[in-house]
Amino acid sequence: MKPSTTYIVLWLVASAIAMFLALQLNSAAFVDGQYIPAGNDSFYHARRIIDAAIGERGFYQFDDMIHVPEGSWLNWPWAYDYLAAMALTFALWLRPTLEPMAFLAHVPVAWLLVNMGLLSLIARKIALSIEMSAVALLGFALLPLTQTLHGVGVIDHHFIELTFVLATLWSGLNFFSAQCRPKDVVILGVILGIAPAFHNGLFILQIPVLICFLAHWLRGQMPETRKLYLLTAALFGSTLLVVLPSAAFRDMQFEFWTLSWFHLYIAGCSAVGILFFGLREFGRLSVGMLLGLGVALVVPIIAKVMIGAAFLGGDLILLNEILEVKSPFARIREPDGLVWVTSYYSWMIVLAPVLIVVYARQAWLESNSDKIFFSVFVVFGVALMLVQYRLNPFGAWALLLATLLIVQDAGEKNGFSKLAITAGSLLVIAVAFQPPLKNRLFAAYPPGLSRDYAATRILFSSMAESCAKDGGTALSYNDDGHYIRYHTDCSVMTNNFLLTPQHERLILEADALLQLDPEQFLLAAPNVDYIFVRMYEIFEAGPNGMQATPIPSLVGRNAPLFVALTFADELPQEYQLIDEVRVQDERDFAYARVFKINR
User: What 3-state class would DSSP assign to 596?
Assistant: First the structure.
């Protein structure tokens, strides 16, 4: 069998395994005979996509039904949701009886063919043997992080982030190879340019490319100038093309949290930096000029950089309470944290600091351009992965590819056979993946990937009926905002968009309302028409496992308004109970309620 055919077979087999595991999230996405989104942000993506494909609102980049009364620019750029809506429209044209969520729920599963294909191309590009490539692809298929990115119903855009990470690595390896062709230059520039249209933060993929150019500049090994002109033109031109459809760009915004002039500016800065490296030889004067140029270019964006650093550090309001922004090392310090981390990352996570050290050294000592780029990208990706759980698409692939490349090189250097190297690698993977195999890959998941949503989802049908007859604005905990928008036609005051100063202010305003008693609330919030009440932490960890939280403790952990609306014997007549879910144990209280306020 030809090597190319063998790689195709490996890609298809590994993709099939990964798809099978991704479908194990079916318990989260298929409930009561219908598909639902899986994951909090997936609910808003689904609502936006379905509105654009078949709804009356069409495609929107500013939503006046969230963060009421002001509305809010969406932190997610246009490309992912818009293209998903176009795909859904086409699917419905082919099959008009198709359930929209049934189609959307399987998009991330099918996309595994793309990401596993890119991984296969990269494995071949870095000269992993066919046998070691098979180990890498199998490991990535078994990694629970792959499952959670591509699981059925998980229509959040993080699996597309992985696509651009892998595409940047693959196209960068082509660019820095000795066989680089003009089309390879253009492909790298276009991938870097269009990436922010799928996620605003993907402009950072330009950083490892710039670092690699800096390394080449210091060594006097810059590519020919013609290639640099072509690369910068492709980067800036493609960025311009994708920011033009952005409403925030046309609104003259300069923010990293919307696809705006900020992203065109960053592309321009990258282009200037690349051309500087190509046109000025390394020297004392050039270093001084580079530092001056860097300061001049950073000054206009210093405030945005500070906010971005706060986001990465989880310092924005409520952000540090969200699981996806916690670093794996911070998570280890929590109860059962080591089990959680190793169940998602496998024991390969312990190699992450080693990979940073080994590949940083290799980037410093290596002379081959493509190996320098690979080393820089490994360090960059693994470092980001260790900052936050949600950044795992940047570095999880390296736990396998980068590690197996070290093992292969060391084995060949010491005279081991391919069989011995492959067998040893498989044994390490088998041991390292015991926590995922035991705890995650075949676990049962609650509907929507949230136990709170699973317990309260029955309320949304009653709320949807009321909102359809008499719409209005709902107050809830921010965690429930996306659920309300997906299921009903009511607006919400807050949700889990927690990034901008506006979001922080509205969260604080909503929290102030939650501190009031029911009578005070009626006077303080005349524009609120619905209240979605839900108790946090109705169960707690005890010496014998999870146990019912005593009512006094429950009262102390929840907002005073919600406590009153749950436990008060009498409420003002303006509060009309729409529906409720009661706790089925000795405590006998309403875990969640929906009220309509009739003034």
Answer: strand
